[in-house]
Design brief:
Elements lengths: L10 H15 L4 E6 L9 E6 L23 H12 L6 E5 L2 H6 L7 E5 L6 H13 L3 E4 L2 H4 L12 E2 L19 E4 L8 H11 L3 E4 L5 H8 L6 E5 L3 H9 L3 E4 L9 H8 L4 E4 L2 H6 L6 E4 L4 H12 L4 H8 L4 H16 L4
Parallel strand pairs: 1-2, 3-4, 4-5, 5-6, 7-8, 7-10, 8-9, 10-11, 11-12
Helix pairs in contact: 1-13, 6-11, 9-12
């Protein structure tokens, strides 16, 4: 959790920044409660900045980790603000994965929906989600079926709205002439598996462009010790500069060591015509069409499988890759989100 625009929240930030203006243009009043220091998406969207200390990320927590509710914590302050603001809006939408929002849901008079941003990660959080789910009336949205299936009590995800992600195809533009480079983009944190992408670049002797915010400096220093001069680090990039890195690559590597809920970098790369080589699990496996818009390799195949995948990706038609991405526009994502929010307001699970 971090300020919108900082890169701390990865694809969640991208989707909030992109969806909010579209919904505002459609006549909806949009307010976003976010950490202090956040960037307002656009005029017409009201930002409510909130101070406080962020809790440790669930993406790096043990399954048995305990949840601690704290006076003055960032999440606690954000939900207090939502309680104060709720009567100004027709619905409150939580975009998170934490114990507190689900505990508080029955105390709101305004309908609450939860867009869960990651796969199942902590038993204590899952137990609270399950409790509210079995009480009835909990309105849930997730990115993909693969994400929903990580929550065992959901019975294969029945009753959960799948929103998928989106990409701005006017910014992430097609390029037919890549260079002999590879690309990797994402939060630089152990669960993202950057070391696998570095190993692939070293095995193929191809430069690797790495783009993203360093969230774990010790991890970054550790993986760079084995980089062998192949890595060029570009930092946390805006969309236009990130597009250049994707578009100039022979392939983009997606190497998560956990179940990725969606994989925004996957769809951004594909919009540039650059095929994705990814492990065959989680959200990327629902986006990439193996042998057409990218290559999916079993996770147990490891680096050797990814090396073979990069070689195979060179034979794919980049126009077909781009065409697949065009099916994930932000307007289509906004359609799905709008319909789901209407069901939350109407009391439909």
């Amino acid at each position: 959790m971090g300020p919108i625009g900082s890169g701390e929240a990865g694809g969640v930030e991208t989707h909030l920044l992109s969806l909010s203006p579209i919904l505002a243009e459609r006549g909806h009043a949009i307010g976003i409660v976010a950490p202090a220091g956040s960037v307002a998406p656009e005029e017409g969207v009201t930002l409510y900045p909130v101070p406080g200390d962020a809790s440790p990320s669930a993406t790096r927590a043990e399954r048995s980790a305990r949840t601690v509710v704290r006076t003055g914590g960032l999440l606690e302050n954000m939900w207090e603000q939502a309680l104060r603001l709720q009567r100004r809006y027709d619905a409150v939408i939580g975009v998170s994965y934490d114990w507190l929002p689900f505990y508080l849901t029955p105390f709101f008079s305004t309908p609450v929906g939860h867009w869960i941003s990651i796969c199942s990660a902590m038993d204590e959080v899952d137990s609270m989600i399950e409790r509210r789910w079995r009480e009835g009336g909990l309105r849930l949205a997730m990115y993909t079926g693969a994400q929903a299936r990580t929550y065992a009590f959901l019975d294969e995800g029945a009753g959960v709205q799948l929103l998928y992600g989106g990409v701005d195809t006017t910014v992430f533009q097609y390029n037919s002439q890549p260079r002999e480079r590879l690309c990797w983009a994402g939060r630089i944190s152990p669960e993202k598996g950057l070391e696998d992408a570095i190993a692939v670049a070293c095995a193929l002797d191809i430069p690797l462009d790495v783009c993203g915010k360093i969230q774990d400096d010790a991890y970054w220093q550790a993986v760079m010790r084995d980089a062998g001069g192949q890595v060029v680090y570009h930092g946390f990039l805006g969309p236009a500069e990130l597009q250049r890195r994707y578009a100039g690559a022979r392939a983009t590597l997606a190497t998560p060591h956990w179940i990725e809920a969606f994989g925004n970098t996957v769809i951004e790369s594909m919009a540039c015509g650059t095929p994705v080589v990814a492990y065959d699990r989680g959200g990327p496996a629902e986006i990439v069409e193996h042998g057409r818009s990218g290559i999916l390799m079993p996770a147990e195949a490891g680096v050797a499988g990814l090396v073979a995948g990069v070689r195979a990706a060179g034979g794919l038609d980049r126009r077909v890759v781009r065409a697949r991405a065009e099916g994930f526009s932000f307007d289509r994502m906004a359609d799905r989100f709008e319909a789901w929010v209407e069901s939350v307001v109407g009391g439909v699970g």
